[in-house]
Write the C-alpha coordinates for this entry.
Amino acid sequence: MGATTTCEAPGCSYVAKTAALLRQHARQHTGERPYACRAGCSAAFASSTAQLKHERVHAKPHSVCPEPGCGYLAANSSAMVRHTRKMGHAASVVCPFPNCAMRFKSYLALRMHKKRSPHAGEGGTSVCRTCGATFATVVEYVVHEKGHRVERLAKATQDRRKSEPVGGAEL
Protein backbone atom coordinates (compact mmCIF):
# COMPACT_ATOMS: atom_id res chain seq x y z
CA MET A 1 0.00 0.00 0.00
CA GLY A 2 1.25 3.53 -0.82
CA ALA A 3 2.30 6.25 1.60
CA THR A 4 -0.43 8.08 3.48
CA THR A 5 -0.57 11.42 5.29
CA THR A 6 -2.55 12.18 8.43
CA CYS A 7 -4.45 15.36 9.27
CA GLU A 8 -2.73 17.30 12.05
CA ALA A 9 -5.84 19.15 13.27
CA PRO A 10 -6.62 18.48 16.96
CA GLY A 11 -9.09 15.62 17.36
CA CYS A 12 -9.08 14.68 13.65
CA SER A 13 -8.01 11.21 12.55
CA TYR A 14 -8.41 11.68 8.78
CA VAL A 15 -5.84 9.80 6.70
CA ALA A 16 -5.32 10.80 3.06
CA LYS A 17 -3.69 8.82 0.28
CA THR A 18 -2.25 11.94 -1.35
CA ALA A 19 -1.10 15.39 -0.25
CA ALA A 20 -3.72 16.98 -2.54
CA LEU A 21 -6.52 15.12 -0.73
CA LEU A 22 -5.10 16.24 2.61
CA ARG A 23 -5.04 19.90 1.45
CA GLN A 24 -8.68 19.58 0.32
CA HIS A 25 -9.63 17.99 3.66
CA ALA A 26 -7.84 20.74 5.64
CA ARG A 27 -10.29 23.27 4.11
CA GLN A 28 -13.03 21.69 6.27
CA HIS A 29 -11.14 22.88 9.33
CA THR A 30 -10.14 26.31 8.00
CA GLY A 31 -13.35 27.13 6.13
CA GLU A 32 -11.28 28.21 3.12
CA ARG A 33 -13.16 28.26 -0.20
CA PRO A 34 -10.64 29.22 -2.88
CA TYR A 35 -12.73 28.17 -5.89
CA ALA A 36 -15.18 31.00 -6.71
CA CYS A 37 -17.92 30.62 -9.31
CA ARG A 38 -16.59 31.98 -12.62
CA ALA A 39 -20.09 32.81 -13.84
CA GLY A 40 -20.21 35.79 -11.51
CA CYS A 41 -22.46 34.66 -8.68
CA SER A 42 -21.29 34.79 -5.06
CA ALA A 43 -20.84 31.02 -4.60
CA ALA A 44 -17.43 29.68 -3.55
CA PHE A 45 -16.25 26.12 -2.99
CA ALA A 46 -13.58 24.10 -1.18
CA SER A 47 -12.93 21.90 -4.23
CA SER A 48 -12.68 22.50 -7.95
CA THR A 49 -15.03 19.54 -8.51
CA ALA A 50 -17.78 21.24 -6.52
CA GLN A 51 -17.13 24.47 -8.41
CA LEU A 52 -17.50 22.77 -11.80
CA LYS A 53 -20.66 20.98 -10.70
CA HIS A 54 -22.17 24.29 -9.58
CA GLU A 55 -21.20 26.11 -12.78
CA ARG A 56 -23.35 23.70 -14.78
CA VAL A 57 -26.36 25.50 -13.32
CA HIS A 58 -25.26 28.62 -15.21
CA ALA A 59 -24.14 26.82 -18.38
CA LYS A 60 -27.07 24.68 -19.43
CA PRO A 61 -30.85 24.88 -19.41
CA HIS A 62 -32.15 24.24 -15.95
CA SER A 63 -35.43 23.86 -14.20
CA VAL A 64 -36.73 26.30 -11.61
CA CYS A 65 -38.38 24.95 -8.48
CA PRO A 66 -42.14 25.37 -8.97
CA GLU A 67 -42.71 26.08 -5.27
CA PRO A 68 -43.86 29.73 -4.99
CA GLY A 69 -41.08 31.98 -3.71
CA CYS A 70 -38.33 29.33 -3.80
CA GLY A 71 -36.40 30.18 -6.98
CA TYR A 72 -33.99 27.21 -6.72
CA LEU A 73 -32.24 26.39 -10.03
CA ALA A 74 -31.46 22.73 -10.68
CA ALA A 75 -28.91 21.56 -13.24
CA ASN A 76 -30.82 18.29 -13.79
CA SER A 77 -33.94 16.43 -12.68
CA SER A 78 -32.06 14.46 -10.01
CA ALA A 79 -30.93 17.69 -8.35
CA MET A 80 -34.51 18.98 -8.40
CA VAL A 81 -35.79 15.77 -6.77
CA ARG A 82 -33.12 16.03 -4.04
CA HIS A 83 -34.02 19.69 -3.48
CA THR A 84 -37.77 19.09 -3.21
CA ARG A 85 -37.25 16.24 -0.73
CA LYS A 86 -34.72 18.21 1.33
CA MET A 87 -36.85 21.35 1.47
CA GLY A 88 -40.09 19.45 2.06
CA HIS A 89 -41.90 20.89 -0.96
CA ALA A 90 -44.93 18.65 -1.16
CA ALA A 91 -46.05 17.65 -4.64
CA SER A 92 -43.82 20.13 -6.44
CA VAL A 93 -43.48 18.30 -9.79
CA VAL A 94 -46.21 19.65 -12.06
CA CYS A 95 -47.68 17.79 -15.04
CA PRO A 96 -46.71 19.84 -18.12
CA PHE A 97 -49.82 19.06 -20.18
CA PRO A 98 -52.62 21.60 -20.67
CA ASN A 99 -55.85 20.90 -18.79
CA CYS A 100 -53.97 18.85 -16.19
CA ALA A 101 -53.32 20.50 -12.85
CA MET A 102 -51.91 17.40 -11.16
CA ARG A 103 -48.76 17.73 -8.99
CA PHE A 104 -46.45 14.96 -7.82
CA LYS A 105 -43.77 14.43 -5.20
CA SER A 106 -41.30 12.92 -7.69
CA TYR A 107 -40.52 12.73 -11.39
CA LEU A 108 -41.12 8.97 -11.22
CA ALA A 109 -44.70 9.60 -10.08
CA LEU A 110 -45.16 12.04 -12.99
CA ARG A 111 -43.82 9.42 -15.42
CA MET A 112 -46.29 6.85 -14.06
CA HIS A 113 -49.11 9.43 -14.39
CA LYS A 114 -48.22 9.97 -18.05
CA LYS A 115 -48.31 6.21 -18.69
CA ARG A 116 -51.59 5.59 -16.88
CA SER A 117 -53.42 8.74 -17.97
CA PRO A 118 -52.49 9.33 -21.59
CA HIS A 119 -52.38 12.94 -22.72
CA ALA A 120 -52.58 11.77 -26.30
CA GLY A 121 -55.09 13.90 -28.19
CA GLU A 122 -55.00 17.44 -29.50
CA GLY A 123 -54.43 20.15 -26.93
CA GLY A 124 -53.71 17.69 -24.14
CA THR A 125 -57.06 15.91 -24.17
CA SER A 126 -57.07 12.36 -22.87
CA VAL A 127 -58.25 9.50 -25.10
CA CYS A 128 -59.69 6.26 -23.73
CA ARG A 129 -57.74 3.30 -25.12
CA THR A 130 -60.73 0.98 -24.67
CA CYS A 131 -63.57 2.85 -26.42
CA GLY A 132 -61.88 5.91 -28.01
CA ALA A 133 -63.85 8.52 -26.05
CA THR A 134 -62.02 11.85 -25.52
CA PHE A 135 -61.96 13.97 -22.38
CA ALA A 136 -60.91 17.57 -21.75
CA THR A 137 -59.38 16.79 -18.37
CA VAL A 138 -57.48 13.87 -16.92
CA VAL A 139 -59.90 13.71 -14.00
CA GLU A 140 -62.81 13.01 -16.37
CA TYR A 141 -60.71 10.35 -18.11
CA VAL A 142 -59.81 8.63 -14.81
CA VAL A 143 -63.47 8.51 -13.72
CA HIS A 144 -64.42 7.06 -17.14
CA GLU A 145 -61.61 4.49 -17.02
CA LYS A 146 -62.83 3.23 -13.62
CA GLY A 147 -66.08 2.25 -15.36
CA HIS A 148 -64.15 0.04 -17.79
CA ARG A 149 -62.27 -1.57 -14.90
CA VAL A 150 -65.57 -2.42 -13.18
CA GLU A 151 -66.89 -3.90 -16.45
CA ARG A 152 -63.73 -6.04 -16.89
CA LEU A 153 -63.92 -7.26 -13.29
CA ALA A 154 -67.63 -8.19 -13.65
CA LYS A 155 -66.91 -10.07 -16.91
CA ALA A 156 -63.97 -11.96 -15.33
CA THR A 157 -66.13 -12.95 -12.36
CA GLN A 158 -68.93 -14.12 -14.68
CA ASP A 159 -66.47 -16.16 -16.81
CA ARG A 160 -64.99 -17.78 -13.71
CA ARG A 161 -68.45 -18.80 -12.48
CA LYS A 162 -69.25 -20.35 -15.88
CA SER A 163 -66.09 -22.48 -15.78
CA GLU A 164 -66.74 -23.86 -12.25
CA PRO A 165 -68.26 -27.35 -12.09
CA VAL A 166 -72.01 -27.48 -11.39
CA GLY A 167 -73.15 -29.09 -8.11
CA GLY A 168 -69.73 -28.94 -6.50
CA ALA A 169 -68.64 -32.32 -7.92
CA GLU A 170 -65.13 -33.24 -6.78
CA LEU A 171 -62.56 -34.89 -8.96
Remarks:
- The chain has a mean pLDDT of 77.
- The helical segments are 19-30, 48-59, 77-87, 107-116, 138-163.
